[in-house]
Give the backbone structure.
Amino acid sequence: MGEAGPKPVSGEALPPDDELAAVEQAALSFARAAGEAIVASLGTELTIEYKTEGKNGAEPTDPVSQIDRAVEAMIRERLAKEWPDHAIIGEEVDEQPAVDAEYTWAIDPVDGTTNFVNGFPLYCASIGVLHRGRPVVGATWVAASRELRPGVMHSRAGQPLSFEGVAMPASNLEQRARRPLAAAPGGSPGRTPRWDNRVTGSAALECAFTAAGIFTQCSFGGLRIWDLASGIALAQSAGLDVRARRGGEWVAFDRFTPPAQVKEDREPTLRDWSEPVLMGRAESVSHYLSMRKRPGIVATIVRRMLGR
């Protein structure tokens, strides 16, 4: 733990490290700027809209604030000036990215917006960079951290995980408690035979906390690329085991790929990606997968993840 993650599963060579270092520094700068904008908005009156209307008298869900939109617009503007040939996938702008772009940025300007608009300080701004679909840079600004302060967790492929420019010592990433915590989808039981579950309301934050050793693992159903791109890059730099469920099997995650087809009459793109993902310490992932082979608590969690 704490050292550079494993080499790419595909065996494909990484871009030059100086090239990735420049991309990482840009992502770090953008994530810091996102955090500054979020902090500056605290205590101000927010304009909040909802993407999904409630049914049968329920309140609406999936809020979006002007801060979500402003942060994404800021990052898009800066990217267009610095790397106009890079593609962008953002949660708040429904545009399909170029299918032949060498680099693609996946942006979630505020992940955990429901927490944010309610003043619950578990949210983040997540920026992941893909090289031909493979996560190579991650930068996640977190409102809270093990250090009890906000800041950016960041990494690039082949290099260790860092917090605000300082490599995180291996001792910080090690599991300390005999009974650890894990992040699980909403509705999961609070306890399994090996760990206690927590639901934070922010997938990107859960990935960052897992990379930092706060959670022993985290698991997700069919989320979107902006939710997980940065977190997977962070987890891989922390040496974690990252899996995706494909063809009925949990396989080592190597890259994001578009689905075979979409409902619309167009070519699928990375914006359409959605797969169950599991990441964590190798022993926790192994235990999780062994448990789902027989009836029990973890199998129930998996069924809920997959909507079964």
In short: The first strand starts at residue 48 and ends at 52. Residues 186 and 199 are 6 Å apart (CA to CA).
